[in-house]
Specification:
about 325 residues, alpha+beta, Rossmann fold, Methionyl-tRNA Fmet Formyltransferase, Chain A, domain 2, 2 domains, 7-stranded mixed β-sheet, 7-stranded antiparallel β-sheet, 8 helices
Length: about 325
C-alpha cells in the first residue's frame, strides 16, 4: 500500500516508528511547518519531522491543507491510504483522496471524549478507564466508522504525561493491526453507537489558559484530578497573593487530604520547611511540585527554602 502519514507531536512518533519496523513505509509524511521557538526564536521542527528526517522519509509541510500545490503533490503520489495521528482537521478534498480511505488514531474510546484533548479530560473527570480507537475519517470530527478499539486502565496517580505514554504505545500497536487488516482486506468497521441513556457522552475540547486555572472552592478529589490531568503540560495554575502583590504559580503534582476544617478556601498551611497544603472544600491539597513565574520547577521542600509563605494565600 502507498501510505501518506500525517502527524506532528510526540504522540505521533511511536506509531510511525512501529509502522516502519513492520514494513509499512509511508510514501510521504505530512507535518506542521517549522515554527520559531526558544529565546532566539529559531525555526524548530516538529517531533514527527525530526523522526522522519532521521529515517530518510519524504516530508511535506503545507501552510494550508487546501493549497492546490499540496493537493497536486498528494495526487502525484497516488496514495492507497492516509493515516492521521494527532494532526489538524483535513479538508474533504484531502481525506477523500485515497481509494482505501483515510483513518485516524484517537486517544479515547469513541464516541466518548471526542475532541482535541481527550487525555487531559478523562483524568480531570476522574475516569477509571479510557483507550484508543482507529476509525475512518468523515465530514464531522471524530464521528466516522470505528475499526478497532482497546481499553486502558487509568491508575489513580496517572498524570496526563504518564497516560499519554500508555495510550501512545497502545495506539501504535492498534494502528499496526488496523493496517494489517486493511492490507489483507479483512477489515470491518461499525457506526459509532450512542450509549445507553444512563451514560452521558463527554467532550474533550482544546485547553485554554483560563480553563487551566485552579478553583480552590472545589473538593480535594476534583482539584487533585484537575492538577494531574494537566501535568506536565499545559499545567494547572493559580495566583499566590500577598496584599496587592501576586504572582502566577504552576502546580505539577499534589496529594489530597479529606478532612473537615474551618479555613477559607485558598488558605496556606505550612511548616515553612517540608510541607505546604491549601485549604479547600472538605479537606486540603498538599502541593508537591510547583513553579513560580520566571523561575524553575521545584519540589516543595526546595520552594520553601527560598520563599516565605506567611501572609500569602492562593486564589
Amino acid at each position: 500500500m502507498k501510505i501518506i502519514y500525517y502527524g506532528t507531536p510526540q504522540f505521533a512518533v511511536e506509531p510511525l516508528r512501529v509502522l516502519l519496523e513492520n514494513s509499512f513505509v509511508p510514501a510521504a509524511v505530512v507535518t506542521s511547518p517549522d515554527k520559531p521557538a526558544g529565546r532566539g526564536l529559531k525555526p524548530a521542527s516538529s517531533e514527527v519531522k525530526q523522526f522522519a528526517l532521521a529515517h530518510g522519509l519524504k516530508i511535506l509541510q503545507p501552510e494550508k491543507l487546501s493549497d492546490e500545490s499540496f493537493i497536486s503533490e498528494l495526487n502525484s503520489i497516488h496514495p492507497d491510504l492516509q493515516v492521521i495521528v494527532a494532526f489538524r482537521k483535513l479538508p474533504e478534498t484531502v481525506w477523500r483522496l485515497p481509494k482505501l480511505g483515510t483513518i485516524n488514531l484517537h486517544a479515547s474510546l469513541l464516541p466518548d471524549y471526542r475532541g482535541a484533548a481527550p487525555i487531559n479530560h478523562v483524568i480531570i473527570n476522574g475516569e477509571k478507564e479510557t483507550g484508543v480507537t482507529t476509525f475512518y475519517i468523515n465530514e464531522k470530527i471524530d464521528t466516522g466508522k470505528i475499526i478497532l478499539q482497546e481499553k486502558i486502565y487509568i491508575d489513580e496517580n496517572d498524570t496526563a504525561g504518564t497516560l499519554h505514554d500508555k495510550l501512545m504505545n497502545a495506539g501504535a500497536a492498534l494502528l499496526l493491526e488496523t493496517l494489517r487488516q486493511i492490507e489483507k482486506g479483512t477489515v470491518h468497521s461499525n457506526e459509532q453507537n450512542q450509549p445507553a441513556s444512563s451514560h452521558t457522552l463527554h467532550t474533550a475540547p482544546k485547553l485554554s489558559k483560563e480553563f487551566c486555572r485552579i478553583n480552590w472552592n472545589q473538593s480535594p478529589e476534583k482539584i487533585f484530578n484537575f492538577i494531574r490531568g494537566l501535568s506536565p503540560v499545559p499545567s494547572a495554575w493559580t495566583e499566590i497573593v500577598n496584599g496587592s502583590s501576586s504572582s502566577r504559580v504552576n502546580i505539577f503534582s499534589s496529594q489530597k487530604e479529606i478532612m473537615n476544617h474551618n479555613f477559607a478556601p485558598g488558605k496556606i498551611i505550612s511548616d515553612h520547611k517540608s510541607f505546604l497544603k491549601v485549604a479547600v472544600q472538605g479537606g486540603y491539597i498538599l502541593l508537591k511540585e510547583l513553579q513560580l513565574a520566571g523561575k524553575k520547577r521545584l519540589r516543595i521542600e526546595e520552594f520553601l527554602r527560598g520563599f516565605n509563605t506567611e501572609n500569602y494565600f492562593l486564589k
